[in-house]
Amino acid sequence: MLKKDLRQKYLTLRNQLSSSQIADKSLAISNKTLELPIWSKDYYHIFLPILSKQEIDTINLLSILQGKDKNIVVPKVENDSLEHYLLTDNTKFKNSAWGVPEPVNGIQIEPNNIDVIFIPLLAFDENGNRVGYGKGFYDKFIACCKPEVLKVGLSFFEAEKRISGVLPTDIPLDYCVTPEKIYSFTGSR
Ligand SMILES: Nc1nc2c(c(=O)[nH]1)N(C=O)[C@@H](CNc1ccc(C(=O)N[C@@H](CCC(=O)O)C(=O)O)cc1)CN2
Ligand SMILES: Nc1ncnc2c1ncn2[C@@H]1O[C@H](COP(=O)(O)OP(=O)(O)OP(=O)(O)O)[C@@H](O)[C@H]1O
């Protein structure tokens, strides 16, 4: 299926989830991440959910990262690209026009310092390709990171067979975590 059709399909499926399904699936995804071979790193990049858009609630994953004493980095849209800030006890948040809770100020982190990125998505396929909102924010961000950065998709739904219309700028995932299972794409490339 084409990216734009998949975007529509999964936006609709996501909107049909009840708030208790969102909470249960978000918790299951967070707990499943503990089985990933990613926990020996320092800098973990995480998104904070647009709750009104029924995105995965990452609060439990945030607690896991804090419990493991990791450096936690969150994005902010500035001039049509992402900037990244260290999360501290003093970080203040403000919802962007798009509904993302974004840090107001703080210590900026360069992409080359980031070791692991948890990526929001609408759909993914069995090759680790991914569909987001279609703005290319994450594609451009990942392109600035070090080549060995670990890219971990989080998804309420299981993999599609194949996304068509994948572009040369699309960087595939290393792992994707759903409430049911972990997909690893590291062996297939
Ligand atoms: N929780 C969360 N945080 C995230 C993302 C995400 O998908 N989820 N992003 C993943 O990329 C980035 C922000 N993504 C954005 C995507 C679109 C627009 C935006 O400006 N949208 C237009 C409408 C565009 C349209 O409908 O065509 C607007 O609000 O005017 C802003 C940010 C970074 N943070
Ligand atoms: N590294 C890059 N440099 C410049 N433009 C890019 C880059 N990566 C992607 N783009 C552009 O961004 C646009 C959106 O890409 P795509 O449809 O793959 O978005 P997406 O993967 O759904 O969204 P996102 O990355 O925000 O989650 C495309 O027009 C693409 O050409």
From TrEMBL:
Q: Which domain of life is it from?
A: Bacteria
UniProt-recorded Gene Ontology molecular function terms: 5-formyltetrahydrofolate cyclo-ligase activity; ATP binding; metal ion binding
Positions annotated to bind substrate? 50, 55
The catalysed reaction is:
(6S)-5-formyl-5,6,7,8-tetrahydrofolate + ATP = (6R)-5,10-methenyltetrahydrofolate + ADP + phosphate
The name of this protein is: 5-formyltetrahydrofolate cyclo-ligase
Instruction: Summarize where ATP binds, as residue positions.
Output: 3-7, 130-138
What are the record keywords, sorted? ATP-binding, Ligase, Magnesium, Metal-binding, Nucleotide-binding
| Cofactor(s) recorded in Swiss-Prot or TrEMBL | Mg(2+)
Report the EC number(s), separated by commas if there are several: 6.3.3.2
The organism of origin for this protein:
Maribacter cobaltidurans
